[in-house]
Amino acid sequence: MANFVEATSSQQFEDLLSKAGKFLTVVHFQAAWAPQCSQMNDVMGELAKENKHAMFVKLEAEAVPEVSEKYEIASVPTFLFFKGGQKIDRLDGAHAPELTNKVQRLSVSSGGLGGPGAEPPKEDLNERLKRLINAAPCMLFMKGSPQEPRCGFSRQIVALFKDHAIQFSSFDILSDEEVRGGLKTFSNWPTYPQVYVNGELVGGLDIVKELAESGELENTCPKAVTLEHRLKSTINRSPVMLFMKGNKEQAKCGFSRQILEIMNSAGVEYSTFDILEDEEVRQGLKTYSNWPTYPQLYVKGELIGGLDIVKELKESGDLSSVLRGEC
User: Fold this and answer.
1) Exposed site from 80, 102, 263, 275, fewest CB < 10 Å?
2) Contact between residue 28 and residue 58 where contact means Cβ atoms under 8 Å apart
3) CATH 3.10.50.40 fits 4-109, yes or no
4) Checking DSSP bridges between strand 302-305 and strand 296-299, what pairing results, if any?
5) Pick from 204, 202, 181, 200: which is nearest to 192 by CA?
6) Fold of the 125-220 domain
7) Dist. CA 227–CA 209, nearest whole Å
8) 228 Cβ partners below 8 Å, 6+ apart?
9) Which overall architecture, per CATH, does domain 228-323 show?
10) Tens digit of each residue's pLDDT (9 = 90 or more) over 190-229
11) Which ranges in the chain are annotated with CATH 3.40.30.10?
12) Three-class DSSP labels, 307-320
């Protein structure tokens, strides 16, 4: 996609800003190990399709430290917005609705959606509100962002969500007066913050406090899945799980190819997980299992080992019984 590119050096970054001129440039400071960055790149890709005259840039924050330091990037994902080579806005965190809102607002002001001077077709407000409240399973409409709440009520509700490990996305109603006013009428709820779960209004701070005190908050709002819980769930997805580079159909390294050949000859059903498609699992499983390399083989949730261990089991004639959990 011509308007969604990666900058790998400070000079390339500056060249992209210069080339964009007066049109909007959105820069995503990311890290390969952060799954939320990968998710936000998907959002960036969709925005790039919808905003042909804007430029979308992803930049590995740690790989180009001079740019990250210049713009005081302390965490990922962080998004900076530029026009005419000057930074005009900033968004910290993985907040897809707020990113979409900022791109739409800033693109319009630069003529970016339809070329210089062109006005984009205006989306019906109710349709836009429906889209926003359904943008994530749990949506918080607040003043400011979770990193920088801009009122005491918003600060309290963010703290409650964090204390109860609630997974949520947010929208800064101070950034869009149309949404701020329209949502009050749409939901028949006159104040902020407002919490929606699966597109339905839950309420404001007092309701969330009551849910927390009664122990119902976790049942009402989706809980964030910890990495440890996710790893345990993935390891136990099948009685025999092989974590490898590639999959059963196509191994993507020599070690993975060798272990597939051995596994296929054992006559036991097994499932695979491609660690190249999930950096969080790839790095997390090394620590979780205290095993630094791949492939890794698990039987009934227990680590068996890597290629060398599997080779030894085959040579000793024990592999089939181990895979069946018989020893």
Assistant:
1) 80
2) yes
3) no
4) antiparallel
5) 204
6) Glutaredoxin (3.40.30)
7) 27
8) 288
9) 3-Layer(aba) Sandwich (3.40)
10) 999 999 998 999 999 999 999 999 999 988 987 766 778 8
11) 4-109, 125-220, 228-323
12) HHHHHHHHHHCCHH
Using CA atoms, how far apart are residues 168 and 244, in angstroms rounded to an integer? 31
Listed in sequence order, the DSSP H helices in 215-306 are: 217-220, 227-235, 254-266, 279-289
Q: Provide the whole-model pTM.
A: 0.44
Residue pointed to by tokens 């790893």: 231
Q: What share of the chain is helix, strand, coil (3-state, %, to 5)?
A: 45, 20, 35
Quickly list DSSP for 40-76: HHHHHHHHHHH-TTSEEEEEETTTSHHHHHHTT--SS
- pLDDT one-digit tens code per residue, 229-285: 888 889 998 999 999 998 888 888 889 999 999 999 998 999 999 888 777 788 889
Distance CA 72, CA 78 (A): 10
> How many residues in total does the chain contain?
327
Q: How many whole angstroms separate alpha carbon 227 and alpha carbon 255? A: 26
